[in-house]
Amino acid sequence: MLSLGLTAVLAVTAVFTASTAAHAATFADTEGAGYAAAVDALAERGVVTGDRNGAFDPDRNLTRGQMATML
Asked: Structurally, how many domains does the chain consist of?
């Protein structure tokens, strides 16, 4: 299974062009991560929302439904 962080990077790379601008982390648990900008872009578009506590939890495995949403 792909991790949530890796899938976010793949989804954004496939859909959006890379940006060199600095992004503020939407989720506290993605700050400083290489995929933080990708996760932020997906969150801004409503593709990812995080868990009940507002964390992204990038090490969590994706469900099929979550993967379908990202694609």
From this structure: 1
Task: Please give the average per-residue pLDDT across 41-54, as a whole number.
Answer: 88
Which residues make Cβ contacts (< 8 Å) with residue 31, sequence separation at least 6? Answer: 25
**Per-residue H/E/C for 22-59:** CCCCCCHHHCCCCCHHHHHHHHHCCCCCCCCCCCCCCC
Q: 10 is in which domain, residue-wise?
A: 4-70
Instruction: Tell me the pLDDT tens digit for each residue of 7-47.
Output: 777 776 665 544 434 444 579 899 899 999 999 998 998 88
Amino acid at 18: A
